[in-house]
Design goal:
The chain has 300 residues and is α+β, with helices and mostly antiparallel strands. It contains ten helices and 13 strands. Helix 1 packs across helix 2 and helix 9 runs antiparallel to helix 10. The site of zinc ion (ZN) has 6 residues, from loops.
Length: 300
């Protein structure tokens, strides 16, 4: 497997972690959406964070959606992931490009293309109403915004690190990230303050996750380097991939929800309609007979 997420714990179970390598799936998103360099970095970071947050879900059928509403040129981002590390996403304006950061010409200006806004986290765990949490964006750099979400909305001390390195030919050279969370203190003989201090120092050294990946680091060795003398236990490894589960039936459901009157109008116009999936760009065509069929379901 080329892209994967590891789940594990460290320091006698006082910390849990998720670490991912996601180059292939970010490249797939770039190919599907024709993402610009800065949009590859922005959506790639959110896909990586979303894939790991999906892997935090308890049940296989849980679905997590991260939605960023923002005033920057990208116009907004959506990522959906499930508990098995299937992830998909899109940007409202995927091809917009802005200059790199002024202070560092090597760095794509993700914060600049995202701007100010709000992050919504929607967890569908099969209940009637999904759980919805939100927090304001702090920098638009995605990792910091997710860190703030965990602190504000879920009250869990969390460190999120995400990176996407875009190559000279615009393809994705490296992508990955990790999320570490301090779990509520138990009496396990671990000095939590010392652990927190050590992590703060080590995290400061992890400024460029893609730089470490360029040096040959993988999620496993990254977690060992991060936790050093504290024991690291890897519980499992999930294959991560870009996957869309759209179907004509699902799109039919979306058409049905726009209302009888509008569907009737489309039928009267007598032309087939095309509906494109935002996530994978697959085109679904509904001719007049299909539309009549949708109306007839509605009557039942
Ligand atoms: Zn699709």
């Amino acid at each position: 497997m080329s892209d994967y997420i590891i789940r594990g714990t460290a320091a006698s179970g006082q910390v849990r972690f998720f670490a991912a390598t996601t180059r292939e799936l970010v490249e797939e998103a770039r190919r599907i959406h024709g993402l610009s360099r800065v949009c590859t970095a922005a959506l790639g970071r959110l896909l990586t964070g979303g894939a790991m947050m999906g892997a935090m879900c308890k049940n296989d059928t849980d679905v997590l959606t991260l939605q960023i509403q923002c005033d920057g040129p990208i116009g907004g981002l959506v990522v959906t992931a499930d508990a098995r590390a299937n992830v998909k996403g899109y940007a409202i304006r995927p091809t917009v490009e802005i200059p790199p950061k002024k202070d560092n010409k090597e760095k794509l200006d993700v914060g600049g293309v995202v701007g100010n806004g709000v992050l919504h986290v929607i967890k569908d765990i099969g209940l009637k109403e999904p759980y919805v949490g939100q927090s304001n964006l702090v920098s638009g750099e995605i990792a910091e915004d997710l860190t703030t979400y965990f602190a504000v909305s879920e009250q869990i001390p969390t460190a999120v690190c995400l990176g996407v390195l875009v190559d000279k030919d615009d393809s994705v050279k490296q992508a990955g990230g990790f999320i570490i969370q301090m779990l509520p203190d138990g009496d396990k003989g671990v000095d939590m303050d010392a652990l927190a201090d050590m992590l703060e120092l080590r995290l400061a050294a992890f400024v460029s996750i893609t730089g470490l990946m360029e040096d040959g680091m993988v999620p496993e060795t990254m977690m060992e380097a991060l936790f050093q003398d504290y024991d690291v236990v890897i519980h499992d490894k999930l294959e991560a991939k870009y996957a869309c589960n759209c179907s004509k039936e699902r799109v039919e459901g979306a058409i049905a929800s726009i209302g009888r009157k509008d569907i009737q109008e489309m039928i009267e116009e007598g032309k087939p309609i095309e509906v494109k999936c935002h996530f994978c760009n697959k085109n679904y065509v509904f001719d007049v007979e299909d539309l009549k069929q949708i109306l007839s379901y509605d009557e039942e």
